[in-house]
Amino acid sequence: MALETPVCDFGLPAIDFSLPGTDGKIWTLDDCRGENGLLVMFICNHCPYVQAVIDRLVRDTNELKKMGINSVAIMANDANDYPEDSFDNMKRVAQQQGFSFPYLYDETQQVAQQYEAVCTPDFFGYNKDLQLQYRGRLDASRKEAAATDVRRDLFEAMKQVAETGHGPENQTPSMGCSIKWRAA
After folding, report:
1. 171 to each of 12, 43, 58, 77, 161, how far by Cα in Å?
2. Fewer CB in a 10 Å sphere around the end CB: N or C, the chain?
3. Taking the model in full, what pTM does it have?
4. Where do the segments described as Disordered lie (predicted)?
């Protein structure tokens, strides 16, 4: 089921975490932050919305890093029901796609719940004080990649955050597959 993210709750503080990465390290919020901010992305391996934009995501995170905005990706789906999202497959995808950011496994789903993540991809853009400034889409892509010349919503918003500490007032929600929660 496709879902949209809620509107940005400006100023909401980032939530700390301690999660294993595909690189073998345990990562915390402080380990991930950049001097001008942090982009927290909830993604997974199997979602067609993520697959459609993964190359753009890698491009944009590499460019944002040069502006002092670091990125981290978190996978919170139930890997028992969705084996494509297993930790071993996360390692494979991170290597194949050339992730320059940590790819973390939220096996308990507690971090995704604390962030109130709803779909993949779900983007949370924070300023240098780790206050939320962006909760929108990457670009106009959906299950298929949009034209190459579309506005880069997330990139432009996070560039603004790096330069001013504030995100744009108007943001278009991200859309994607629902997070695959464990049965209660």
Report:
1. 16, 19, 21, 26, 13
2. C
3. 0.97
4. 164-184
